[in-house]
Amino acid sequence: MKYFEPKPRTGFNINIDIPGSKSITNRALILSALSGKNVILKNILLSDDTKYMIEALRSLNNNINLDSSTNTIKIKGNKNPTYDNLELYVGNAGTAMRFLSSYLATGTGTATIYGNERMNERPIKDLVDSLRQLGIKVEYLKKDGFPPIRITSKGVSARCVEIDGSKSSQYISSILMAAASFNNPLEIKLKGRAVSRPYIDMTLAMMTDFSINFYEENNSIYIYPQEYSCSEYLVEGDMSSASYFLAMALISNSTVKLNNFFKNSIQGDSKFLSVLNKIGLITVESTDTSITVKGIPVYKGIHLSMNDIPDVAQTLAVVALFATTSTKVWDVENMRIKETDRITALKNEILKLNGNFEEFQDGFLILPKSLSSYKESVLETYDDHRMAMSLSLAGLKIPNIKISNPECVSKTFPNFFNEFNKIYLEE
Fold first, then answer.
1. pTM (2 decimals)?
2. Do 30 and 139 belong together in one domain?
């Protein structure tokens, strides 16, 4: 499919199936590997990012049996792996690149981790600096501060590490998950203001589910050597993926039921529901694993920091196009080091639609226009799944929109456009 061409549609009533969470699936895979035990993972996401993680872990002698018909994995973990001149390819999967780096540090050997061209532009210096503090030899193979990297490990005996999480919370999560498999108790000092703090909290919650104890005090997290243990783990539905259909209901004044939407989610992006509720989205019904929401004919914009939920800022940007007042977002500078520079990419595409977009270093301001002021356009996605999914929502109101390279959604939500097209099948 070269283009996805959404058609304007309002007032529908549909059921959407949300896939399992990418963030939770890849964390669960690493935690299972670290356990060295048999673990069953249910409701996993099978996408590009998780496939890269699975193949890398298999290369590190984790026994993984995948049943794609039931989205279930049976894994026999390989604790403290031994490896020799291994090469691990991770595409543009940031979680795989970062989490595997610390997993390698728990073992012994030399391995190279590399990805695609965009991955080579995504910074990893703060994580590498921390690994070096831990006594791990890490070499940059092309450009200092960026992948690909070569890691040589003899295990970790250090007792303290400082890590800067101001660019990505994944650096902190990476060290956290590996820490219980190091040789000595470890103090992890958090330096600077951590972005996406809910993702760190999600990591800690999952570690608790896998029987790991820790405590946090004065900006440090303390973990001692322990055994990971969890026989079965259920992966939540992906709250980032849910964001597009919550926004769809609001933009189109429609009713949408989301299945696999966990009421007590550990994911930070679950907060996006409350953001849209403030704007006017109505929660009609909520169960432990589903929610039904309804839009309204007219809604206002909102001004807020999205430091905790930057992955849904693009979704809100498209919602903002059809509001009656301005929307301003700040504290999301790390959007610039994702699959693309998402702030600049949003500006480029919204300007194509004849929208108003003011770009800041750490955010943006959108002044909505009348619907008739927007114009048809072919929108680029920058090989970024979230650009493709969020921009498709513009086609609910603006005629003759084309989304280029829609296949990039396979990174986290391969079935996205099949779910989207349900609005045209509904009577």
1. 0.92
2. yes
